[in-house]
Design a protein that fits this description.
Blueprint (H helix, E strand, L loop, with lengths): L1 H16 L9 H7 L8 E8 L3 E6 L5 E5 L4 E5 L8 E5 L5 E7 L4 E7 L1 E2 L4 E2 L4 E7 L9 E8 L5 E8 L4 E6 L4 E6 L5 E6 L13 E6 L5 E6 L4 E6 L11 E5 L3 E6 L5 E5 L4 E6 L2 E7 L12 E6 L15 E6 L3 H6 L5 E8 L5
Length: 354
């Protein structure tokens, strides 16, 4: 009897943690699995029309750093939406910024280069990575320095930490379909990954986009916007190839992504105006612009990150269950030339939807 009860408990527990490969993705069926979906989207701050926000990082104090692709600027946004935005830095001789990541206390690395939103093309060889050292309280000037220029680049996009002890970052080139390793101390650049699943489907397409390492750093996860996939690749300690990439999930219009505390992939879908959680080969839609009206802060989502947990600062302990999202205001408006909305920093409370 005891054994039967124990076995039943194990089976029930397993059913909760093993992904359901046939998980539906339309709201009517999802209500059965997750009552309350889709979740509300709150706008923290809306930028002027024509502002394409491309990526974001969360500071230790909870505020959001966000890069602009429509201008070579890095901004800080109060995560409460109360204080005015602050211009952290303008990168001279560049036209826009893409990825941002943190490595070290209040130390961030930003990709900047020359990119045209009128024809969605980058200038080959124009891309660089910069180091941005912040002070605890802005508006003290940030210390900004060039780390490296990428002469073989086409459109650098994603960036993540490979090894803090070795000062290594990984940087994706969406147009070339490759990933570079960058030593931020020496500026040395090495092409470490090039896989068919990273390639765009056309010369002007967007291939490998967001990149993140698994907790054990054995796998590089990435999105490919052209191929509508989330994939992973088994890598060595130095970021080089150990096995070919494999598709994890099929996703409509994926851009950047992150992991939640349970190591689930949470991805934003730029063309679909959604944010979802990967479950098996499917994606559970957590939030959608269509469900939040014309004032939604989910038009053209470009990146997502979860809040920090630092109880001695002014934010709540629940901040780590809030997904902060950068948007461009809607990609379609840039394609038509009728730009009426600005990018936003938005937030979705995902408590209970891990």
């Amino acid at each position: 009897m005891y054994f039967s009860a124990l076995l039943l408990s194990v089976l029930l527990f397993t059913s909760l943690i093993v992904p359901n490969l046939s998980m539906p993705t339309d709201y009517a069926e999802l209500e059965y699995y997750y009552p309350g979906l889709p979740l509300a989207v709150d706008v923290v701050h809306e930028f002027p029309p024509g502002t394409w926000l491309d990526s974001l990082a969360v500071r230790r104090n909870g505020n959001i750093l966000t890069t602009a692709l429509s201008s070579p600027e890095l901004f800080e946004v109060d995560n409460r939406g109360k204080d005015p935005i602050k211009l952290v830095h303008t990168f001279a001789n560049e036209t826009g910024c893409t990825g941002i990541t943190q490595m070290g206390r209040e130390t961030f690395y930003v990709i900047a280069g020359n990119f045209s939103l009128s024809n969605f093309t980058g200038v080959p060889g124009s891309w660089s990575v910069y180091k941005v050292k912040l002070h605890r309280h802005l508006p003290r000037s940030a210390q900004v320095s060039l780390v490296a220029k990428f002469p073989d680049s086409i459109v650098l996009n994603g960036i993540t930490v490979l090894s803090k002890s070795k000062n290594w970052l990984l940087v994706s080139d969406s147009a070339a379909g490759v990933v570079y390793r960058l030593d931020v101390k020496t500026g040395k650049i090495v092409k470490v990954l090039e896989d068919p699943l990273m390639k765009p489907e056309s010369p002007s397409g967007v291939g490998v986009n967001g990149i993140r390492l698994s907790r054990d750093k054995a796998y590089l996860f990435f999105t490919n916007s052209d191929r509508n996939i989330v994939a992973s690749q088994f890598i060595d300690w130095d970021g080089t190839l150990r096995a070919s990439a494999k598709v994890i999930a099929d996703v409509d219009g994926p851009d950047d992504f992150t992991f939640n505390d349970a190591d689930h992939v949470v991805v934003v879908q730029n063309r679909a105006d959604r944010m979802g959680r990967v479950t098996g080969r499917a994606v559970v839609t957590l939030a959608s612009a269509a469900s939040n009206g014309t004032a939604s802060g989910l038009f053209g989502p470009t990146a997502v990150r979860f809040g920090e947990v630092k109880p001695f600062f002014r934010k709540s302990q629940a901040d780590w269950m809030k997904a902060y999202i950068s948007t461009n205001g809607g990609t379609a408006q840039y394609l038509t030339g009728n730009v009426t909305r600005g990018g936003t920093i938005s937030v979705v409370d995902v408590r209970g939807y891990w």
